[in-house]
Amino acid sequence: MGNIMDYIEWRGDLPFTQSEFNDVDNLILACFSYVNLDGIPEAASQNGIELKALTEKFLQLHTEKELKEDKSFIRFAPFMMLEMAKTERFGQCVIRNYVNEIVAEEAQQFSAVEICLSDGTSYISFRGTDDTIVGWKEDFNLSTGVVPAQERAVEYLRRIAGSLQEMVRVGGHSKGGNLAVYGAVMCKELHPWILQVYSNDGPGFSREFLELPETEALLPKVTRIIPEYSIIGTLLEHSKEPVLVASSNKGLLQHDGFSWEVSGNHFASKEQLSSRAETFVSILHKWIDGMDVEQKKVLIEDLFSTIEASGSENLSEIQAGGLKSFTAMLKRIESFAPESREMVQELFLALFGGWLEQLKLPDMEKIPFLPQSFSDKILEKF
């Protein structure tokens, strides 16, 4: 089974006028926003720059060695862009209105770009978070209320709407999917121009937001796509049933859009969310529903200080660390007050359950500080 990189090779010779826009094209353009276009002023202009010319300027600024040093999944985005530029389908796209900035005191990054397609439509792509622990924490923090990046997304779309002459699609991956939906809903002047809004494994929203008349009006145009083992894409509340897709990765690493499996011009589908993902969602709602904003912040801080105790920068490194990562995180959990410890233990087991299965229990039993209560919980799981 292929992925979006294979799709570019398979379908790249077919222009949009011959093979219409589909969900796979959406993911490609959502992931395009992960490319750092800083230093190319034409991409930030209203007139923009054709993709083929953009790649030439990009390669003058970045070496292949530099690009390969990035260890997160977004390292594939520049290489995807280079392949897109070689094709009939994407090569004539015009890239414009690129922004990349730091917003507010939280030092959150906001980045977006408009991609004008050869069929006369455009795709507005909001950048999401990568697979670093810091990125995942930012996704979880969306549960604490409206964040500056969401407000900036509305401002960005209002600026775009002021000069629109074509129909648009709005989308993003991870946090970018959340920004796409939030911005599209709150920018009412854009509504008549919207063909579709895509959230690719993006976090959800508060119940209050979902009940807004503007949200309900736009909901028929929203497409929500998540992998079989989705954590980020099941956070908070959702009104739209998801399209479930297969992934070549296991567990948490399925958040990587480059792992989603493609067959022809569509994703390989799955019938239901994995049982482990459902368990995590159930446990998270058990603890977080009814919490006020400050309580949510404390829980998220405790959970991520546990994950950060592994000494890893991203999820792949945690899994590669094996028993060493596991014991470091357990030590952190044991330092919490009893009321926090129980919550984090449950979430930890639900989040890393699939990975823990790969650790040999005899090794785990050698951990001298592992509390009997926690040991019992692990043994119950496996």
What does this molecule look like?
This protein is an alpha/beta fold and 382 residues long. The protein folds into 2 domains: 4-273, 3-Layer(aba) Sandwich (Rossmann fold), CATH 3.40.50; 276-381, no CATH class. Helix content is 46%, strand content 14%. The chain has 17 helices and 10 strands. β2 (94-103) and β3 (108-116) form a beta hairpin. The longest helix is centred in the last third of the chain and has 20 residues, at 315-334. Residues 366-382 have low confidence and may be disordered.
Describe the structure concisely.
The chain is α/β, with parallel strands linked by helices and 382 residues long. The protein is built from 17 helices and 10 strands. The protein starts with a helix and ends with a helix.
- What share of residues are in beta strands? 5-15%
Compute the gyration radius: what is it?
A: 21 Å
What is the terminal separation in angstroms? 31 Å
Q: Number of DSSP helices?
A: 17
- What value does the average pLDDT take? 87
For the largest beta-sheet, the strand count, sense and barrel status come to: 8 strands, mixed
Give the tally of structural domains. 2
Total strands: the figure is: 10
Given the C-alpha coordinates, what overall shape results? globular
Secondary-structure element string: HHHEHHHEEEHHEHEHHEEEEHHHHHH
Q: Which structural class do the helices and strands define?
A: alpha/beta
- Name the strands of the widest sheet in spatial order: 1-2-3-4-5-6-7-8
Per CATH, the class of the largest domain reads Alpha Beta
Q: From the 3D structure, determine the CATH topology of the largest domain.
A: Rossmann fold
Helicity level: 40-55%
CATH architecture of the largest domain: 3-Layer(aba) Sandwich
Unreliable sequence segments: 366-382
